[in-house]
Amino acid sequence: MQPIRVIQWTTGNIGRRSLHAILGRDDLELVGVYAHGADKVGQDAAELGGWPEPTGVTATNDIDELLALRPDACCYNPLWPSIDELVALLEAGVNVCTTAAWITGGKQTEADRARILEACDKGRTTIFGSGAHPGMTNLVGMALSGSCERVDSVVITESVDCSTYESAETQAAMGFSRPPETPGLAESVRRESEVFAESAAMMARAMGVELDRLTFDVEFTTASGDSDLGFMTIPAGTIGGVMGYHRGWVGDRNVVSVGFNWVMGEHTVPPKPLAHGHVIQVFGVPNMRTVLHCLPPADWTEPGFMGLGMIYTAMPVTNAVPYVVAAEPGIVTLADLPPITGRIRV
């Protein structure tokens, strides 16, 4: 079989991990790279993805140039999705696998979601979104539910110190370093994390129910001392901990909750102790519980563990490329595809 022709869209924290993985697979062929920053235009993909040998593929910010390459798929890894970019790719026959806050497209406006579906129909293409959380955690939760005679509810919590994620803009949007009395803060966090609600609805549907409504609740914890994280500071008295859940309801029963218990810095005691991983619980007959830990291999040489988290986020999407190319056109989720696996190397 011919390799699947792939373009990598952005080469930031997550994108460069995806790029590196594409270059290491014989069933995928890197044909193009989209550079968000002008300073990356013209650089070889090897430089941008940490690959040891030149590839001959150079980055561009010209979308038409990338579409002219007639790729089969795109690993799309900006922080937030651009509907215009997604439509351009899908209409041109490029299947999209993304980490950019997309599970079902449910947080988009009706008009924008309709544009995506029309583009999929026109290009006979598919869009799929995943990541670590939401994404892999939801897949594990659904798999655990397969061991139950009866499922009463599912609760998934990312329970971590997230100060290794060096994005001050993202962290501030989630409330960190801001005064707890900031007007509209809870609503801002709800909007920023709304993709968790998409994953809750996806899981409920996979387990046989349609949600009547979704709610969001959040609890903020202030820091008792100053923390300097290098890329941002958490002053004493500002928010150093955020615990929130997007909850799906059927009638008066909360059947699925997807959320986070996050801490930044050294001077915050969260309402619930950190599990330093993803806590996945299925309540029913029987109850099921597991905690996913992302740990370094013996040959890990990078300082710190931020890189591991970025790989953990990128790979559920990069590894999905062959499955998404083979899928029916439209929006697909983890509930629609076969189990996505990594590649054994020998």
Notable traits:
alpha/beta; 7-stranded parallel β-sheet; 6-stranded mixed β-sheet; 15 strands; globular
Helix content: 25-40%
- The Rg value, from CA coordinates, equals 20 Å
Low-confidence stretches: none
Which range does the strand content fall in?
A: 25-35%
User: For the residues shown, what is the average pLDDT?
Assistant: 96
**Which structural class do the helices and strands define?**
alpha/beta
What gap, in angstroms, lies between the N and C termini? 20 Å
Shape: globular
* Side-by-side strand order of the widest sheet: 3-2-1-4-5-6-15
Give a count of the beta strands, DSSP E runs of length 2 or more.
15
Number of helices: 11
What does the main sheet amount to?
7 strands, parallel
Description:
The chain is α/β, with parallel strands linked by helices. The chain is built from eleven helices and 15 strands. The protein has helices spanning about 15-25, 45-50, 65, 85-90, 110-125, 130-145, 170-175, 185-190, 195-205, 305-320, 320-325; strands at about 5-10, 30-35, 60, 75, 95-100, 125-130, 150-160, 215-220, 225-230, 235, 240-250, 255-265, 275-285, 290, 330. The protein has a seven-stranded parallel β-sheet with strand order 3-2-1-4-5-6-15, with helices on both faces. It has a six-stranded mixed β-sheet with strand order 8-11-12-7-13-14, with helices on one face. Strand 4 (about 75), helix 4 and strand 5 (about 95-100) form a beta-alpha-beta unit. Helix 1 (about 15-25) crosses helix 10, helix 6 packs parallel to helix 9 (about 195-205) and helix 6 (about 130-145) packs across helix 10. The longest helix is centred in the middle third of the chain and has 14 residues, at about 110-125. The radius of gyration is 20 Å and the shape is globular. It starts with a strand and ends in a 14-residue tail after the last strand. The mean pLDDT is about 95.
